[in-house]
Amino acid sequence: MSGGAQGKAAQTEAGTKKRGKLPLIAAVLVLLLAGGGAGAWYAGLLPGFGGNHDTHEAADAVAKAAAKPPVFIEIPDIIANLNSTARRQTFIKVRARLEVADEAQGKIVQAAMPRLLDLFGGYLRETRPEELRGSAGTQRLREEIVTRANLAVAPARISDVLFVELVMQ
Question: What stretches pass through the bilayer (predicted)?
Fold first, then answer.
């Protein structure tokens, strides 16, 4: 074989290798674009596809709800002894406010205040001092109070508890 024939054979072989990779690269690109498009649709970033009308209505409802400020209900001071195995008793003093959506729910919460005070006091008497230490303990206390309060004021809904004073002695 001559040098020219070997060069053409080498070029043909190299061209075949490049053409063999081209469909693979194209397929990977198509899959990446399809995956990105599906993710954007699922996340709701493509407004024209999939009928996102529900999310727009929900966003409008949230905007209307945010327009009126929440109502804060003052809880009288709660002083309770904690569940302690030490010789000396540990006491806690809690002063807090409950956050509700509107005045109507605020009236329901005010009417249920004796029940709320009983629930909170009972929960605090069963709590150990080490459970309330640190920010994680305060967060747990907040979650428990919200959960118990929502059970006590069933038609109304308490969205948060704001601690004004939390003293352990």
Answer: 22-43
